[in-house]
Amino acid sequence: MQKEARRAEPKEKKNGRQEVYEWVQALVFSVLAVVVVFTFGVRLIGVDGHSMVPTLQDGDRLLVLNAMLCGGYEPGDIVVLRKESFLPTPIVKRVIATAGQVVDIDFGSGVVYVDGQRLHEDYVSEPTFTPEGTAFPLTVPEGSVFVLGDNRNNSTDSRDARLGTVDERYIIGRAVFLAIPGPDAATGARKYGRIGGIG
User: Fold this and answer.
1) How many helices (H) and strands (E) does the chain have?
2) pTM across the whole model
3) How far is residue 113's CA from residue 119's CA, in Å, rounded to a whole number?
4) Which among 42, 126, 156, 182 is least buried, having the fewest CB atoms inside 10 angstroms?
5) Are 188 and 181 in contact (CB under 8 A)?
6) Is 64 exposed, middle or buried, given 0-12, 13-18 or 19+ CB atoms closer than 10 A?
7) What is the pLDDT of residues 121-170, one digit of tens each?
């Protein structure tokens, strides 16, 4: 009986070592999966400034789907882009028009038109009154988008001739989820659900 007990011990030790090995292996695979996802799939990017108020607040942290996975952009998409000749840091804007569409803005009434149709923009803080140097109407070139901030009169965007229409190669990705909300500029409250959120 004693011999049988002694023989069983090495098996138990082996099982214990195997269990530890499996835990370590699972942990390594999990870490690698997270690294791959955040390198090639999504990334966390912070909002700096008030050009997208009320949709986004200064200090928001966005989960951004990398450009290579986006498969193109549509009007209404919120994108993160970087054009170093314009600004060295990424900026967040809303796509208003895509390749081939014609954009016109009536700065007297503050109305934006795409392909002759007035946009009903319930996401803006106020109508679009400030021109920034771009001549309208304009046709968005192939492979480009026209972007505006939601805080129209406090946003530097495609109205500024230095940025103009944005080549899609400058787009880092599309914002899909508000991961961490920044404080509301007016109330200080932190609200989820402004984009892709939970309420």
Assistant:
1) 2, 11
2) 0.77
3) 6
4) 126
5) no
6) buried
7) 999 989 999 999 999 999 999 999 999 999 999 999 999 999 999 999 99
Q: What is the largest CA-CA distance in the chain?
A: 98
- Side-chain-side CA neighbours of 41 within 13 Å: the count stands at 7
Q: Write out residues in the chain with pLDDT < 50, as ranges.
A: 1-2, 5, 8, 197-199
CB 46 within 8 A of CB 80: no
Residues whose CB falls within 8 Å of the CB of residue 100, separated by 6 or more in sequence, listed in order: 139, 140, 142
**What is the side-by-side strand order in the sheet with 171-180?**
42-46, 61-66, 171-180, 78-81, 91-98, 144-148, 166-167
Catalogue the active-site residues.
51, 93
Q: What is d(CA 90, CA 53) in angstroms, rounded to the nearest whole number?
A: 17
Smallest CA-to-CA distance from 20 within 35, 12, 5 is with 12
Cα(22)–Cα(1) distance, rounded to whole angstroms?
32
Query: Cis peptide leading into 181, omega within 30 of 0?
Result: no
Distance CA 177, CA 195 (A): 6
Report the distance separating Cα 25 and Cα 36, nearest Å: 16
